[in-house]
C-alpha cells in the first residue's frame, strides 16, 4: 500500500488545506484550518521501539504482524522514500518521494487509514547516530492485543504562517495548537505546551519520541520557549516529576515549527501541533548502578576472604576492565557477575562505591588498607569513605533496626526530584493511592524559584515532611524489602511514623485536614492564638516570636527560665538546645547565659507551655481509624514497636493511645536525647532516618557518642540517613543501602541487579496497571 499525497489533518478523517500545495496558498498572513466532524475520536497508540523499552510480550505481539499488515516509514533522511515492508532503508523509484512530506501531521493523516484497518505503522529515524523506531497502532486494536501504549496521539493540526509578522505568526501557532486540542477534546488549561523546531521529518519524529518518552517517564516537559532538539532532550532530565491532578491524564501539546519555503524576502513556516496523552506503559527505570555510579557488594566468611576478592577485582580492573572502551562491559557483565556471587547469608560483607573505574581502584586499595588495620579488623571500628565504601567487622544485624522520622523543617527545594526516573512503578503506585502532588506539596517544593520552598508555612512543611517520609518508607520497605523492628519520630515525626508504616487507615485524608487546621495555621503558628491566650494579650498587642539553637546544657537554661516567663526550653538534643518564645525574652536569656544562639526564624509554639491549651484538639486531630492489618498484628503481638517521646513504654497500637501520645509529644518540651537513650535501652541499635535530609542522624550520632563516653556499658549504635540535602539522591540512597549491607540487614538487591541485564523487562504488557487515567 502506498500512502496518498500529503494532507494535513486535525484528527482521523478530518482534512485541511494541503501543505504541499504552496502555489495556491493565499498571501494572507496565516492559512485557515478547515475541518470536518468525526464519527469517532482519534486514538493512536504509540509504543517506543527501543529494545529496552519493548518487553518480551510486546515484541512477540508486534512480531505477529505480517509484512502485508505493516507499514514502515523511514525518515532518517527527509528525501527518502516512504515504503512499507520489513526493509525500507533504500529509496525505490516506483515509490512516492517524501521530500515534500516534511509534515508529520500530513503523514499521520494518511497513516490513519492503515491504522483503522488494523495495520501496524513503524516510524524509523535516527537520533544522532542511534537508529530508533516508534510503533503506531489503532488504540482499540492495541487494547485487544493487550499492548500497553507509552502514549496516545489524540489530535493534531497544521497551518502555514508568514514569519515576517511576529505577532500574527505567534497568533497563528496558537490557533493551530487550539485546533489540535479541540480535536482531541482536551482543555488548554490542563495541558503542557512544548514548542520546538523540526525542519525535517526526522527531527519531527525525534521530537515526537521525546514527547512520548516524557509521558511514559512522567517527566515534566518544557513549558515554553523555542528550543532545538538537543537542548530539549537535555531539559527533560532536569525538569523533575510531572505531577498531575489525581485520576487525570497528563496531556502534552507538542508544537512543531518548520520553515517550508522562501518567497522573495518572506519565509513561510509550517506550524504543527500534536496532542499526546499518557499511556498505561511506564518507561523503563534508569539503572541505579552504571559505569558512573559503581556499587560492588562483596561477602565472605572472614576478612581474609574479603581481601582475596578485592585483590581479584583490582587485578581484573588493572588488566583491561578499567580502560575507557571496556568500562561499560565492566559495569554491566562483570558487575552483574559480582552481584550474583554475593551471598546475603554470609557473616561479613563490604561494599565498594565509586564514580568511575579509576576511582574504584582507589576505593579498593583504601579498603584493603582498612581491613589490615587493627581497629577495623579486631575492635569493630566502622570504616567508610566519602564515596560510600564501607565495612564493619561487627555487624549489628536487623534485631535493633529502627526507622527514625524527622520533624518539621527538613524539606528543601527540589528534594530528590529525579527519584521517579529510577522507581517509576513506585510513583505510579503512590499516585493511585492518593494525591502525590499534595503529599509532597509540589507547587512549593518544585517551584521555579527555589525561595518558594523556604517560605512554606507550618502546615505546608508538616505535610511535605510526612510526604517525604511516606515516600522513602515505601521505597525501603516495598522496593528493597527492608523491615524495621522499631520506629520513633522527632517531634512531628511521630505523626509521619504512624502515617508511613501502614497503621492509619486513611493517611492521605490528613493532607486536607492539616491544610485547613486551626491548630497549624492559627493556634501554634501564624497569629499564635494559643500564645495570645496564654499571655493574656489584647488583640492589638503584637507577638514577636522566634526560636534559637544554642550549644548549652539544658540544666543551665532551666535554671534561668523563672526570670524569663515568656521564654521556653522547647527541645533538648544532645549538646544543643532550642529555646523559643518572645524574641526579646529569648535574646535576654541568651545574654544572661553568656551564649550565642542561632535564630531559626520559624514561628511555631510546639513544645512550649502555650501549646498545652490545644492539647485536646491535637489529640482529637490525631485519633484516626487504624488499618485492620495493623490491629491484627497488634493482637498477635507482632507489630513494630513504636516508641514515643511522651512515654518510656512502647505505644499501644489503638486509636486513642496513638492520638494521646502524639498530643503529649506535640505540646510538651521535647527531650530527644532521652528518647534515643530510651530506644537504645529497648534494643535499638541501627537508626535509619527515613525522610528528607539527615538532621536527626547527626543528632543521634552526637547523643550516642555522648552516652558511650559516659559508660562503657552502652551498646554500639549507628545512625544512617537515606537522603542528604545537596547530594545526589540516588548516591545518598546507595550509601544507605551499602551501610545496611555491611551490617548484614536483610534486603533485596533486585532493583540494583535487574537493570544490569540488557534484556530486562521492567513492566510486562500482560499486566494492566490499575487506575490509570486515559
What features would you describe in this structure?
The chain is an alpha/beta fold and about 775 residues long. It is about 35% helix and about 20% strand. The chain is built from 28 helices and 23 strands. Strands 2-3-4-1-5-9-8-6-7 form a 9-stranded mixed sheet, with helices on both faces. A 5-stranded parallel sheet has the order 20-15-14-22-23, sandwiched between helices. Strands 19-16-18-17-21 form a 5-stranded mixed sheet. Strand 6, helix 5 (about 200-215) and strand 7 (about 225) form a beta-alpha-beta unit. Helix 15 (about 460-480) packs across helix 16 (about 495-500) and helix 22 (about 615-620) packs across helix 24.
In short:
The chain is an alpha/beta fold. The protein has 28 helices and 23 strands.
Element layout with pairings:
Blueprint (H helix, E strand, L loop, with lengths): L43 E5 L7 H7 L7 E5 L29 H13 L3 E8 L2 E9 H6 L6 E12 L3 H19 L7 E6 L3 H16 L9 E2 L1 H8 L14 E13 L2 E13 L15 E7 L2 H19 L5 H15 L6 E7 L2 H15 L2 H4 L5 E2 L5 E2 L9 E5 L18 H10 L2 H5 L1 H4 L5 H4 L3 H22 L6 E4 L3 H8 L8 H7 L2 H6 L5 H7 L9 E6 L3 H7 L6 E7 L2 E7 H11 L3 E3 L15 H8 L5 H8 L5 E3 L11 H13 L2 E2 H10 L4 E4 L5 H16 L7 E4 L7 H14 L7 H4 L21
Parallel strand pairs: 2-3, 6-7, 6-8, 14-15, 14-22, 15-20, 17-21, 22-23
Antiparallel strand pairs: 1-4, 1-5, 3-4, 5-9, 8-9, 10-11, 11-13, 12-13, 16-18, 16-19, 17-18
Helix pairs in contact: 5-6, 7-9, 15-16, 15-17, 22-24
Amino acid at each position: 500500500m502506498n500512502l496518498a499525497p500529503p494532507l494535513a489533518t486535525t484528527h482521523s478523517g478530518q482534512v485541511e488545506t494541503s501543505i504541499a500545495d504552496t502555489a495556491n496558498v493565499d498571501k494572507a498572513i496565516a492559512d485557515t484550518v478547515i475541518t470536518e466532524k468525526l464519527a469517532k475520536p482519534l486514538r493512536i497508540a504509540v509504543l517506543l521501539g527501543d529494545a529496552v523499552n519493548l518487553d518480551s510480550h510486546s515484541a512477540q505481539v508486534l512480531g505477529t504482524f505480517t509484512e502485508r499488515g505493516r507499514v514502515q516509514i523511514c525518515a532518517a533522511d527527509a528525501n527518502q522514500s516512504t515504503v512499507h515492508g520489513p526493509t525500507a532503508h533504500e529509496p525505490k523509484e516506483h515509490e512516492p518521494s517524501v521530500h515534500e512530506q516534511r509534515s508529520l501531521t500530513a503523514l499521520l493523516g494518511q497513516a490513519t487509514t492503515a491504522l483503522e484497518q488494523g495495520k501496524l505503522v513503524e516510524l524509523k529515524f535516527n537520533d544522532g547516530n542511534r537508529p530508533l523506531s516508534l510503533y503506531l497502532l489503532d488504540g482499540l486494536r492495541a487494547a485487544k492485543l493487550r499492548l500497553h501504549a507509552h502514549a496516545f496521539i489524540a489530535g493534531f493540526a497544521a497551518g502555514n504562517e508568514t514569519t515576517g509578522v511576529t505577532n500574527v505568526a505567534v497568533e497563528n501557532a496558537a490557533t493551530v495548537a487550539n485546533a489540535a486540542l479541540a480535536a482531541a477534546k482536551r482543555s488548554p488549561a490542563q495541558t503542557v505546551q512544548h514548542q520546538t523546531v523540526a525542519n525535517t521529518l526526522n527531527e519531527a519524529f525525534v521530537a515526537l519520541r521525546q514527547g512520548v518518552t516524557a509521558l511514559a517517564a512522567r517527566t515534566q516537559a518544557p513549558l515554553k520557549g523555542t528550543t532545538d532538539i538537543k537542548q530539549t532532550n537535555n531539559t527533560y532530565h532536569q525538569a523533575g516529576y510531572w505531577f498531575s491532578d489525581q485520576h487525570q491524564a497528563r496531556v502534552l501539546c507538542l508544537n512543531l515549527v518548520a520553515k517550508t519555503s522562501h518567497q522573495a524576502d518572506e519565509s513561510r513556516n509550517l506550524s504543527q501541533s500534536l496532542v499526546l496523552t499518557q499511556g498505561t506503559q511506564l518507561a523503563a527505570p534508569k539503572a541505579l548502578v552504571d559505569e558512573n555510579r559503581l556499587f560492588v557488594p562483596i561477602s565472605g566468611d572472614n576478612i581474609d576472604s574479603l581481601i582475596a576478592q578485592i585483590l581479584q577485582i583490582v587485578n581484573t580492573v588493572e588488566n583491561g576492565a578499567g580502560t575507557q572502551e571496556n568500562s561499560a562491559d565492566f559495569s554491566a557483565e562483570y558487575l552483574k557477575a559480582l552481584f550474583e556471587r554475593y551471598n546475603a547469608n554470609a557473616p561479613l560483607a563490604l561494599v565498594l562505591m565509586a564514580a568511575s573505574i579509576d576511582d574504584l581502584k582507589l576505593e579498593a586499595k583504601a579498603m584493603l588498607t582498612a581491613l589490615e588495620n587493627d581497629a577495623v579488623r579486631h575492635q569493630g571500628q566502622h570504616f567508610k569513605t566519602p564515596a560510600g565504601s564501607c565495612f564493619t567487622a561487627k555487624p549489628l544485624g536487623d534485631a535493633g533496626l529502627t526507622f527514625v522520622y524527622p520533624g518539621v523543617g527538613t524539606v528543601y527545594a527540589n528534594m530528590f526530584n529525579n527519584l521517579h526516573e529510577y522507581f517509576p512503578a513506585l510513583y505510579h503506585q503512590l499516585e493511585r493511592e492518593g494525591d502525590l502532588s499534595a503529599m509532597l506539596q509540589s507547587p512549593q517544593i518544585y517551584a521555579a524559584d527555589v525561595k518558594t520552598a523556604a517560605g512554606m508555612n507550618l502546615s505546608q512543611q508538616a505535610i511535605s515532611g510526612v510526604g517525604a517520609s511516606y515516600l522513602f518508607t515505601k521505597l525501603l520497605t516495598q522496593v528493597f524489602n527492608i523491615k524495621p523492628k522499631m520506629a520513633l519520630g522527632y517531634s512531628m515525626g511521630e505523626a509521619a511514623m504512624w502515617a508511613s508504616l501502614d497503621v492509619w487507615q486513611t493517611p492521605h485524608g490528613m493532607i486536607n485536614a492539616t491544610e485547613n487546621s486551626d491548630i497549624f495555621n492559627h493556634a501554634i503558628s501564624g497569629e499564635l492564638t494559643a500564645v495570645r491566650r496564654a499571655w493574656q494579650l489584647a488583640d492589638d498587642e503584637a507577638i514577636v516570636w522566634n526560636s534559637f539553637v544554642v550549644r548549652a546544657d539544658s540544666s543551665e537554661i532551666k535554671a534561668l527560665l523563672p526570670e524569663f516567663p515568656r521564654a521556653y526550653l522547647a527541645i533538648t538534643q544532645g549538646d544543643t538546645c532550642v529555646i523559643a518564645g518572645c524574641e526579646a525574652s529569648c535574646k535576654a536569656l541568651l545574654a544572661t547565659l553568656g551564649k550565642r544562639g542561632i535564630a531559626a526564624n520559624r514561628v511555631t509554639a510546639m513544645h512550649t507551655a502555650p501549646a498545652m491549651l490545644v492539647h485536646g484538639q491535637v489529640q482529637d486531630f490525631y485519633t484516626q481509624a487504624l488499618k485492620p492489618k495493623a490491629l491484627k498484628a497488634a493482637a498477635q503481638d507482632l507489630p513494630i514497636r513504636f516508641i514515643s517521646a511522651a512515654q518510656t513504654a512502647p505505644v499501644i497500637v489503638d486509636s486513642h493511645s496513638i492520638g494521646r501520645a502524639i498530643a503529649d509529644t506535640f505540646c510538651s518540651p521535647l527531650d530527644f536525647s532521652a528518647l534515643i537513650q530510651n530506644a537504645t535501652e529497648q534494643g535499638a541499635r541501627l537508626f535509619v532516618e527515613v525522610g528528607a535530609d539527615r538532621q536527626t542522624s547527626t543528632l543521634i550520632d552526637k547523643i550516642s557518642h555522648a552516652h558511650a563516653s559516659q559508660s562503657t556499658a552502652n551498646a554500639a549504635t549507628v545512625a544512617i540517613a537515606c537522603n542528604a540535602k545537596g547530594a545526589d539522591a540516588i548516591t545518598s540512597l546507595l550509601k544507605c543501602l551499602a551501610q545496611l549491607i555491611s551490617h548484614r540487614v536483610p534486603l533485596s538487591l533486585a532493583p540494583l541487579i535487574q537493570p544490569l541485564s540488557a534484556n530486562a523487562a521492567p513492566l510486562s504488557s500482560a499486566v494492566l496497571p490499575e487506575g490509570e487515567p486515559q
